[in-house]
Amino acid sequence: MVGMSRRGFISTVTGLAVGLGLSTEALGQALASVPRARDVRTSLLQSIKFSSSPVRNQYRTLVAAPGEAVITRLDVLRREASTQRAATRRSLFYFAHLSDIHLIDAQTPARMEPMVGLAKTTFSDAFRPQETLGTYVLAAMMHAVRNATTSPLTGAPLAAAVSTGDSADMMNTLETNWYITLLDGGSVTPNSGLPGEYDGVQVWEDATYAYHPDDPSADPYGEYGFPRLPGLLKATVSQEVSSPGLPVPWYAVYGNHDAMYMGTFAVHSQLRSWAVGDRKAATWDALSETSLAALASQPSALQRMANTVRTNLGMLPGMHAVAPDPGRRLLERTEFMQAHLDSPPLPGPVGHGFTPASVTTGRTWWKADPAPYVRLLGLDTCNTTAGADGGVPEEQFEWVKAELDAAQVEGVLCLILSHHNSLTLENDAQPVLGGRRIVHAEEFIAALLERPSCVAWINGHTHINTINAHSRPDGAGGFWEITTASAIDFPQQQQLVEIVDNRDGTISLFVTALDHASDPTWTDGDFSTVGLASLSREFAANDWIQNPPMRMGSPLDRNTELLLPAPFDLSRITDAQVEAATMAARARLITAGVDA
Question: What global pTM score does this model have?
């Protein structure tokens, strides 16, 4: 296969230099060098483990551990792979996968923290001790992605990033703006209400279910061994968090927390008013008579009025006065897309998958071609009638099938992006009027298996590293489903994914777990921005309600090489095309100030 000619190289360099505002000579010299694999900071070099064996009801710290090797999986290929593939392969597309960031405005009246005290397992995400620290984790993850802009396996440059939903936790304006700003590059102060002051359940004595870092002796977290950390909350809400941002174009899809109240309920007008109001519930009794009343199926107008009067007069026990903040406003669906369209041109693309037509029509799914031979199909699998799990509306289902059929003819590799995965694509809730057919996992997977251009389904939602093989009944190929962990729960990992043509009729998908760029072991008293990211991971590892180690997945779900048959003759993708796409990706990284 013939690569790029000298004339083609000069022409490509000139075009990139003009488009990016760079010196043609300097860019040409940089791109003339041959990219090589480097030792970058990923879990291939270092992993993070508990410092000791588990002891019931005992807090544990974390330590650095040896890296984890790549495990080869043949579940879809169903035959031995060539031992020579490492010598012949070429990288087609290297990207980062983010999901379930869950930036939390922890002081909003819209949060329902008392529910964790009512049913710890069912509502464990109603309160987390690390919920004020999400912006610090995301900024540290941006540094980690920048540290890995050169593939540790092939030397290919990072070309794009995808975020598969639940970026905001309570679909409010502040959370959404924080997440977009930190991914684009910029600074935020993770606070709402009073400047520089935390005002919420972690300082209220009647919130007995919460972690009180100033003095946890009277709460269940203190009993478990969570440390006493005076000043933590003050430091958390008063510091500016700066992020270098992603150095590559990134794309986003909806998660249930981006689309629904608590990721589960449709939003009613009373809840919208409550979110920007000046009263917040600390106890179950106060919550049940106010916020939860708005979710009841038949709340009487008289009862709602009585609750409002009692709350405003301070007559309801367990209710606290807080400073109102319009930034806590719950976003409409189209406003979430518009917030992405309001982002700057770089790192791009403007809209991050969403377009002006998305806002006009309300169409929440999209397609994009980040390389001439790679297509992203971004879905909205949220069932906004009710429930955290999802499904594929029939209109999107038909669209996906048509796009995959077209891609097969064009010789384009397709990646399906959605928030929900095959274990959670079973929500069939229907509105009282105007219901529609919703496609569930079995039918969706069967349709993808019939269309070889789909090589991977990238998703999240469960907060667990999981990789599932989907094979055709006749054994002639299939695709891989790749689910990443979250940035809020342990292990707070995301992923690097690389598509490689082995030049022998097979493709390898390399998946690498990525820890955020903070020390594995938190240093006592370190309230710096990086230190708070480290502390967040340690808190998440000590979730005494759930099972944090389980979320890491097995070794087969972390650093892996996933093989499958090529969906068409990959010689249709010329070396010249690949070299041009690689040069464009390296030029973008140089523009972003990253060594490429």
Answer: 0.93
